[in-house]
Amino acid sequence: MARLPLIDPETTSGDIRASFDRMPVKLNIFRMMAHAEANMIPAMRLGNSILHKQKLSAVNRELLILQAAQLEGGAYEWRQHVPIALGVGCTQAQVDAVERGDYDAAALNESERALLRFGREVVENVRVPEAIFAAARKYFSDQEIVESIVALGFYMMMARVTEATETDLDPAAGMTVYEGGKKSSG
C-alpha cells in the first residue's frame, strides 16, 4: 500500500484534470505525481518527449530505461517498460541481459553494449571514464549521448518517486500508455 494516498483524478481540476482526461490508463505513478501539482505537467511532457521525440532509437531508449529501473530497483518502471521494450523491438534475451546486468551478453550488439556501459556509469558514478565515453561516441551522436543522459535521469527520478512512496504496482499497461502518449506528442 502506498505511503501517500493516490490522487483521485476525478477530484483534480485545470491542467492536471485535462491531463488525466487524456490518459488511456490513469496509472498510479501519475496519481502519485499529481501531489507535485507544479511539477506533474512538466514532468509528463518531459517523459513524453523522451518516449516520442528523441533521436535515440526506441530500442536503445528502452534498454536505457530498463537499465535505470534495474539499477535503481524501480519495480514499477520495470513492470511498465518491459512490454514497451518488447513492443518496440527489443528481444526477451536483451531484456534478460539488462535484468542480469550482463552487458556482454550475446543478445546485445556492440553499440548496445557501449550504450549500456555508458548508462551504468551515468547512473552509478555520474562521471563517465574517458574510455567508456569514447566507446559510446563511436556509435552515438552528441544529441543521442545527451538524450541518453536525460532519459536515464528522468527514469531514475521516477523510480525514486515510486519506490520512496511505495506506489502500488499497476498491471502492465505499457503499449497502451505508450501509444496514447504518441497521439498527444503530435
UniProtKB/TrEMBL annotation:
Coiled coil: none annotated. This is Carboxymuconolactone decarboxylase-like domain-containing protein. Signal peptide: none annotated. It comes from Bradyrhizobium nanningense. GO terms for molecular function: peroxiredoxin activity. Residues 44-115 form the Carboxymuconolactone decarboxylase-like domain.
